[in-house]
Automatic annotation (TrEMBL):
It comes from Oceaniovalibus guishaninsula JLT2003. GO terms for biological process: cysteine biosynthetic process from serine. Its EC number is 2.3.1.30. This is Serine acetyltransferase. Residues 14-118 form the Serine acetyltransferase N-terminal domain. GO terms for molecular function: serine O-acetyltransferase activity.
Length: 269
C-alpha cells in the first residue's frame, strides 16, 4: 500500500474500503474496469466521486455533465456535512439492505442512495437561494431515478431507501436521522394549503412499502409504519401503526426499528 493509500485509509476508512472493492471488482470482471476507474478509482475523495456520479446520472440536453459536475463540486466543497451525510447513508444502506454486500454498491449501482445525494445537492442550492437550479435538480432526479424529493424538504443522516421507486417527499417534510423507508412511500400534504403542510418523521422510524403519511403531523421517534398504511394523525414514539386509516396496533417491538427492518406485526392486531 502506498503512503497516499495509507493516509486515505487512516483519514477516510469508508472511501478506502470503496476503492479496494472497486479494484477487486475490476480484477474479477475486466469488462467493468472502465466503470470502476471512472466511478471510483479516478477520484481522490468520495466527494469527488459523488459529484461525478450525480453529474453523469443527471446530465441532459438542457444541462451538460460538466456544469452539473461543477455545481456538485461546489456544494460538496462548501458544506462538509454533505459528505458526512453521504457516508452515514452509505453505511446505513450496507447495514440494513440484505442485498448490499459491499460499500461500493450504493455509490455505483443503487438509485436510492444516489438520489438522496443528488437531493442533498439540490437542498444546498435551495438554502443558497438558487431556487430554479434546485428545482432543475429535483426534476432530473424524478425523471432519472423515479424519486421526487422537494429541495426544500429537510432530511437527516443515515437514511436508507430500499428499492427506491415512487418515493415522494414534500416541501415542508422533515425526516430525522437513521430513518428507513421502502418503495412507494409518500410524505405528502392533504390539500392545496401552502404553509407547513407535510409530515415530520422522527429519528429511527421504519416506513413500510406503499405507506402514505399525509398532512402536518408528527411521527414519533422509533415508530414502525406498516406497509400500505395511510397515516393521518400524530403517532407517539415507539409505536407500530397499521391500516387505512392507520391506528396504533402495538409497541414498536425494539429500540431501533429502522435498523432491524422487522416489518412483521408478530400477532399484533
Amino acid at each position: 500500500m502506498t503512503l497516499q493509500a495509507r493516509n486515505i485509509a487512516t483519514l477516510d476508512p469508508v472511501w478506502s474500503r470503496i476503492r479496494l472493492e472497486a479494484q477487486d471488482a475490476a480484477e474479477a470482471e475486466p469488462l467493468l474496469g472502465g466503470l470502476m476507474h471512472s466511478a471510483v478509482l479516478h477520484h481522490p475523495t468520495l466527494e469527488r466521486a459523488i459529484a461525478s456520479r450525480v453529474a453523469l446520472k443527471l446530465v441532459s440536453g438542457e444541462m451538460s455533465e460538466q456544469i452539473l459536475r461543477e455545481i456538485a463540486d461546489e456544494a460538496l466543497g462548501d458544506d462538509p456535512a454533505l459528505g458526512d451525510a453521504a457516508r452515514a447513508d452509505l453505511v446505513a444502506t450496507f447495514e440494513r439492505d440484505p442485498v448490499c454486500h459491499r460499500f461500493l454498491q450504493p455509490l455505483v449501482y443503487f438509485k436510492g442512495w444516489q438520489a438522496v445525494q443528488a437531493y442533498r445537492i439540490g437542498h444546498w442550492l435551495w438554502l443558497k437561494g438558487r431556487r430554479d437550479l434546485a428545482y432543475f435538480i429535483q426534476m432530473r432526479v424524478s425523471e432519472v431515478f423515479g424519486i421526487d424529493i422537494h429541495p426544500g424538504a429537510r432530511i437527516g443522516r443515515g437514511i436508507m431507501i430500499d428499492h427506491a421507486h415512487s418515493i415522494v417527499i414534500g416541501e415542508t417534510a422533515v425526516v430525522g436521522d437513521n430513518v428507513s423507508m421502502l418503495h412507494s412511500v409518500t410524505l405528502g400534504g392533504t390539500g392545496k394549503e401552502e404553509e407547513d403542510r407535510h409530515p415530520k418523521i422522527g429519528d429511527g422510524v421504519l416506513i413500510g412499502a406503499g405507506a402514505k403519511v399525509l398532512g402536518n403531523i408528527r411521527v414519533g421517534a422509533c415508530c414502525r409504519i406498516a406497509a400500505g398504511s395511510v397515516v393521518l394523525e400524530d403517532v407517539p414514539p415507539c409505536k407500530t401503526v397499521a391500516g387505512v386509516p392507520a391506528r396504533i396496533v402495538g409497541e414498536a417491538g425494539c429500540s431501533q426499528p429502522s435498523v432491524t427492518m422487522d416489518q412483521l406485526l408478530n400477532g399484533q392486531v
